[in-house]
TrEMBL record:
It is found in: Cytoplasmic vesicle, COPII-coated vesicle membrane; Endoplasmic reticulum membrane. Residues 8-106 form the Sec23/Sec24 trunk domain. It comes from Panicum virgatum. PANTHER family: PROTEIN TRANSPORT PROTEIN SEC23. Belongs to the SEC23/SEC24 family. SEC23 subfamily. Its main location: membrane. Pfam families: Sec23_trunk. One of its GO terms (molecular function) is GTPase activator activity. GO terms for cellular component: COPII vesicle coat; endoplasmic reticulum exit site; endoplasmic reticulum membrane. Residues 1-26 form the signal peptide. This is Protein transport protein SEC23.
Amino acid sequence: MASGGWEHCNLRCMGVALSVAAGLLGACMPEIGARIFAIGGPCTEGPGMIISKDLSEPVRSQKDLDKDAAPHLQKAVKFYDGLAKQLVSQGHMLDVFASALDQVCMV
């Protein structure tokens, strides 16, 4: 069990939210510069998931990333690369505000 009695991270579908935002900008503001600001915790559900919602899984480290031992990394990279290509083709930007706190679900 995680400290403080928490067993699970909050469910966050940030990947879906970013995908919807990109789609709306593409449909409503084609060929007009626009920007998405993303603030929040880690994506724990759906496309773009970067960590499990189960806190019994250990926090990832840089070594895990280097060894390809982070279980959600490859799918997340593929999803966010596709999102980046979509935004670039639309002439739009994405700003993500994140910190290491997302690793322990405190944001």
